[in-house]
Amino acid sequence: MGVTHGGKRLSVPTKHTYRGLYRTDALRDSVRSARRVMAPSKLLNTASSFNEDASLVDVVESADEARRLRHPPLIVRDRLAAVLPGEGELHLERWGGGHSNVTFLVRRGPSEWVLRRPPRPPYDPRAHDVLRECKMLRALHDSEVPVPAVVYTCDDDNVIGAPFYLMKRVEGHVIRDSVPVELAGPGIRERLAEQLVDGLVALHATRWSGVDLPVRGGGERYLERQLDLWRQQWRRKERRAVPAVERLAKRLAGSVPKSATATIVHGDYKLDNVVFSADMPPTLAAVLDWEMATLGDRMADVGFLTAMWIGPGGDPDQLLGLSRATSEAGFPPREWLADRYAERAAFPLTELKWYEALAMWKMAVLLESSYHRYLDGTDNDPFFERLKDGVPQLAATGLELLDGRA
Q1: Beta strands in 256-309 (DSSP E)
Q2: Phi, psi of 111, rounded to the nearest 5 degrees
Q3: Are 320 and 390 a contacting pair, CB within 8 Å?
């Protein structure tokens, strides 16, 4: 257990195990009360406004402050500072608009890093395995797929309360709600779509034999294993009946396509999980969020990409607003993405609607866990309030895809 920097193990000064940092009785009581917290998710609650009765605090100065909180913080500043290089104060900024793992921009002196850690506990470690993500980044560092360079890894919960890693910051744009004005210009949105699709083609063309990937086996029975994995996650977390999720799972299991030769599969490949360069014309600068990557059926990635794409003129709030930018004029329709992939990869796309329905089902299961964190008061992301109706809507969309109605 410990921190790795440049292949060296660093010691972590600590007097207590991290499990003892918090009042576990208070945490249990607050979980039972299912308190709803409506603070904006981008607000960074720090020790400058420390209040031990605060529902959620992102950053505390010390383990002593952490122990007095009802819920664990995301960062313990003095312990993080002890393992990072350089001197001086750490400047921390909650970063990104994602709804799964947590990202911070970390500055110290002239250095800038991006820190990735799981959400506030309790969480499913298999769905938020940031160290596995880190290993995937290192394995692909010299490939044709652009990925950030890993700087540190830490598997010691005594530092900030969860495993984490640091990577170099990649300059550029992550596109979520809209294309930034810096990328305005004729044909730019189609260029972005081209780069996005071509990046996926490059990933699937990457030879994985001989690469130290954090996976077992060669991708056999990937689809069956995915169905089993996500069904188990649903049952472990099930608190309410969502008939559409159950119906969709049953229909997917009853019509599993035959997979082609296994490739590296990202598992969450979409517009807001990549970085585009700031220069013009923009290029794909980095692919992010690899915690679900493995070996398997490339069609799962293609189906996920097209399922999470609205297309010009579509309702921006479709897909719960998760792909709002793709509804802007100038972006191509989802059929264009599929056609470009098939052409560039020289790979026929069969039963794409099944894979799009699989994407909707997986999103529904994953976001149901997020909804539970919101109800328990351990995550204040306002987006999660929408999931009471949003999860059934995603599953209903999956059923429509299987019926050819979406």
Answers
A1: 263-265, 274-276, 284-287, 294-296
A2: -90, 145
A3: yes
Name the superfamily (CATH) of residues 181-402: Aminoglycoside phosphotransferase (APH), C-terminal lobe (3.90.1200.10)
Q: Which CATH number fits domain 19-168: 2.160.10.10, 3.50.50.60, 3.30.200.20, 3.20.20.30?
A: 3.30.200.20
Residue that wins the pLDDT comparison between 218 and 137? 137
Task: Name which residue leads in pLDDT, 211 or 52.
Answer: 211
CB 357 within 8 A of CB 210: no
* Boundaries of every domain in the chain: 19-168, 181-402
Secondary structure (DSSP) of 239-292: -S--HHHHHHHHHHHTTPPPP-S-EEE-SS-SGGGEEE-SSSS--EEEE---TT
Mean pLDDT lowest among 53-57, 102-106, 353-357, 368-372: 53-57
For residues 230 and 249, what is the distance between their CA atoms, to the nearest angstrom? Answer: 9
Q: State pLDDT tens for residues 329-357.
A: 999 999 999 999 999 999 999 999 999 99
State the Cα–Cα distance between residues 175 and 404, nearest whole angstrom: 29
SS3 state of residue 157? helix
